[in-house]
Structures are given as C-alpha cells and as structure tokens.
Amino acid sequence: MKNYCTKIQLIAAFGMAWLGIIGSSPMIWITPSAAAPVTFSPPPPPPDRGATGDRGGAASRGCGVSNQSIIALVPVYKQTLKQGQTEAVSVTKVWGLTSEEYPTFWFFVPYKKSTINSLEFVLKDESTKLSQTLYRTIVTIPEEPGIISIRLGATTPPLQVDKMYHWFFKMKIICNPQQPPEQEYVEGWVQRVNLNPKLVNSPKQATPQQRVRLYAQNGIWYDALTTLAELRVAKPQDPTLAVEWMNLLKSVDLENLAKQPLIKCCQPNAK
Known about the structure:
seven-stranded mixed sheet; 28% strand; three-stranded antiparallel sheet; alpha+beta
C-alpha cells in the first residue's frame, strides 16, 4: 500500500511539473510551501555571452554609506565560457525575468542627497544592429541613502515576451566639490516571459505573500522582488516580512542590503 501511494504521489508531481512549463522556457511552475523560506530558484541564464553586465557593489570613492557604490537588486551569474580550443573567458551575466509589461527596477543608492548631481535610468532594445533607446528618464534624487524603485513608464512600449532588454542606471556624484561630477553606473538585462495559460490565474488567487513564493520559486525575479518590497513598504514593522526579505536577498547574495531602508521617492520624468 505504501509503495502504491508513493507511485501516485510521483505521478501527480510529474503531472504538475509538466503543466507548469512557462512558454518555451525550461522553468517549472512549483506550488509554494507556506512553511518554506522565500528562496529564489534561478532559471538557466541566456547562452553564450548574452546579458553581460555589472550590478555594482564595489567600494565607492569615499562618499557613499560604508564606502559602498550603487547596487542593482538583481541576480548575477558567473560563468566560464570556452573561447577557441583552449582559452576560457570568465563572464558575469546580470539578468532577471518578469511577467509584467511594465516591470519595476530596484537599486541601492548609498549617497547623501547633497553628493548626488543626477540620476538617470535608460532602457534599450539591442536586438538589432542599431540600438534603440525605448525609455530614458531623469530620476528624482532621494532625500536619504536607501533602496529606491523605478517603474517603467506606461508611455513606453510594453515589453515583448521572450525579448531581452538592456537597462542602465546612471549616477553623477560629487565627492569632491573642487572636481567635476564623476559617473557611476550599473547595467543588466530584463526578459519578459508568459506564465503558463493553465496557471496564469494562480498569482491572482494567492495572497501577496504566496505570490512572492510563486514568483521566486519559479525564477520570476522582478515580480517576486517588487511584490515583497511593496509589502515591506506597507508594513515596515512586520517581522515575518523582514525575515522573508532577508531570505530573498540572501538567495542572490544581497543579504547585506536587507536592513537598508526602502525609500518612497524617485518618480521618473520621462524624456
């Protein structure tokens, strides 16, 4: 009887996994466990050298919080690729998935307002030989250091499914008033995917915290991060959300940002 039940469970699990495939992506739709910690399950990154970038995090020029530079809250993939017969090249890919037409991007800005000259966000379509700027905006400077969000403007063409988009977050800072502003920037990629049609209503029927797990366990980074960040903004003193925030950031090696404040600011002004 025990062996029969085990077989039934395995067949059911296989059936759910097969139905959970998202489009042509190799990701599997997993039913989240409320008891399990929020952990991001990274999907396979783009092949070859696609999606190379820099999410930041190096030492700043001396005027950032704890001498930190700007950091994009996004996964990184470090890979060694073959070049020719014997040579190997180390590549860092900065890339994440979304199911949204207009996703939200999150960045840690470690500088005081008085040291920031300007902030700018740019989204490009580089699928053709001539790079096309789809969105460029000057971002309002936050009043204090912390994590800010930038939502893609509704005047921008919606992201197309399965297409890669290249984003840049640029900053000019004044660490030395006697010198011209210096530029720092981070860059990465976002790719929109369709949720499986048979399961597309699951996030809508789930609670916000269940949606975080659904997105995280299925590799939809931007949606998981935004959903949880918005919960944290609404309930900043909630200890459960604080633990989930730590777990999600830790799963992409960003746990050092877990206690940084989420700043309500930075409405973009599209150019």
